[in-house]
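Thread: quick sanity check before group meeting

JM: Hey all, I'm pulling together slides for Thursday and realized we never actually wrote out the predicted structure for the chain we discussed last week. Dropping the sequence here so it's in one place. If anyone has concerns about the input, flag it before I start.
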Amino acid sequence: MKSEELTEYLNNGVSHIIKIVMSGSGSLREQLFILSFGRRARKAAQKRTNLEYTGLHVPAFIIASITNSCNLFCKGCYARANNICGTAEGCGRKKLLTAAQWDGVFQQAEDMGISFCLLAGGEPLLRTDVLETAVRHRNIVFPVFTNGTLFTREKVKFFSRYPSLIPVISIEGNEGTTDNRRGQGTFSKLMDTAAKFQKSRLLWGASVTVTSENLHEISTETFIKPLYDKGCRIVFFIEYVPAAPGTEQLAPDAEDRNELITAVDVLRIMFKGMLILSFPGDEKYMGGCLAGGRGFFHINPYGGAEPCPFSPYSDTNVTNSSLRDVLMSPLFAELNKSGLNGTLHNGGCALFAEHEKVAELAEPEGSRYEKRFDERFNN
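JM (edit): ok, ran it. Output follows.
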């Protein structure tokens, strides 16, 4: 798919997202916000189209990991495996971006017509300063990918005041499956959080990591309907990427992925007021992998601009480069030129499978990751 065709496709995709979320919204306040954002999103789409004519392809989405801290220690966590989060060597010596620096990033994104900034971590609720900064940027919606265990009554009130912040809680399936990966008692906390959301009539979503073990559990009406009944209107199915050593067996295989595609199609028919997204499965409609600026890119907690969270290589940092520089960086340019970017996946992440090639393109930044990945895959 050509760059200008992808821009048009993504622009239409944003409109489709807004339409479905609008149809599922249960509160007048939310509907008014969505209508208002829809108008601003159309203006943002025109900005991206205009920039396309100048030779700059601007994605509709970015992912921002705003912290390297988390209160949970989930099994197979990619953020800990990739040194985005935790106490691994080197993490503690790097400076996190300040709220003011994130403010600058969000402003640039807004100016370029980027409509969605997914906030992740670590646990993003640990960076209240960044959340308070994000809500100033009214032309961007910020889905907040959170483990869902830190929602006090005060935090729910905060999210209720700012509908541009949409909490997306992580859940692995039913109680046993969720607690097995995320820790004893996590599922109960998530249901308590969902009840708070429902009481506040808050628009919220769920992020489900799809593995070979939970596929048959999470891709069913039995799992989705209770979430829907509690007010969940957005579900992200994200295929597990074995970033953590020794977890390769959890990644869905070809048969699993085909089963997921069929199940998602059925669920979309059953729950018309719910936006159901599947990654990377849905990327096949957009010519393959959307990372590296085709449809999105990732900024790590220290400012490194990376193709995606599962491909943690960078040659550009937002502390000394603009987002325009990021999109025109040698790494992103080579990913598109080489064909690595835009390929169809045969697992949870197309670029993860090509880690050695991506690391080479990202030199010298990529060299810091190369040894760790070599040790993981060659032992």
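AS: nice. Residues 28-53 form the longest helix (26 residues). Residues 69 and 220 are 33 Å apart (CA to CA).
JM: adding both to the slides.
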